[in-house]
Amino acid sequence: MDRRSFLKNAGLAGATAGAATLAAPALAAGKRELKMVTTWPKNFPGLGTGAQRIADRITAASEGQLTVKLFAAGELVPAFESFDAVSNGTADMYHAADYYWLGKHKAFGFFTAVPMGMTAAELEAWMHFGGGQQLWDELAGQFNVKSFLAGNTGLQAGGWFNKEINSLEDLKGLKMRMPGLGGEVLRRLGASAVALPGSEIFPALQSGAIDATEWVGAWNDMAFGFYKVAKYYYTKGFHEPGAGLSFGMNKGVWESFTPGQQELIRSACMAENNYMFAEYNHNNGAALETLLTKHNVQVRDFSDDVFDAIGRKAEEVVAEVAETDDISKRIYESYIKSRKETSAWSSLAERNYLTARDRILG
């Protein structure tokens, strides 16, 4: 290389280095700290830790350009005020179950779980391929929120009871913690349903303020210690056959991100959705074994008569949501159509296989 070429190339290198030096402070100036609120107790297994994983994924994948700080229920706002906090910009994002917002709009229940509704796999199919995400965007957008699926607990248990449920008469007058449309089903069958955040359930059950509660499944239920104050554990939860958890972000904040940052957040939510579902499937079996062998929990199943009556009432309650307004009708029709299509295969394939496998292997 001759002297003239060397000086020319050196000059270009110096200019490039100078540009990089000037760009670095601009990049640093673009760093943002974001607040995530949740409806879960701090570090609660599965739910609380799942929210923290999303925060950590976004922070790590953005290489610190987006730093997410998590606030558990009550640390920044009360659990059930998470939606309003994100909608009005007090917080940037939430991790919750959208059926907590039925007071805002009844159709929010479809994006967590509805009685006799979709399993986790069926819900994900609707969201990604059946138009569910687009309808959710439209509904949540009315409240200045952008939402994604960000976790699933799988099929939930029927709940903890202080007495056996042998007939519909046993439900009458029963005070049970059950939010969402499942709670409305219980009310129409004569029970008294209340919505309580997770941290308030155990003391309410212990004091007798409620007679029964549903929560999630064996893993989370054991962590809350419900076996200490309730004797009977019912399976086959009609109310949440595949409870999807939601990541909601202030719409203005979402729209302020670059396309790459938006894709990063979308991918972090999808990763957690799959990770959490696997986590619950792994831990529920071991926890159930502990409940049975160490804590002498008595597992029960709702009789066909009770479950059939619940199912018929559930279909009425869910169908009535469609009468609320135009978007409710479109969400309901889309949900039912997708449930019918996906269940045709899941019933033929998975149910028949599992029945045969259990018959052979026990």
Automatic annotation (TrEMBL):
Record flagged with keyword Signal: yes
Signal peptide location: 1-28
Keywords: Signal
Record Pfam families: DctP
UniProt keyword Signal, yes or no: yes
PROSITE patterns, sorted: TAT (PS51318)
Domain of life: Bacteria
Annotated NCBIfam families: TAT_signal_seq, TRAP_S1
Name of the protein in question: Tat (Twin-arginine translocation) pathway signal sequence
Organism: Pseudovibrio ascidiaceicola
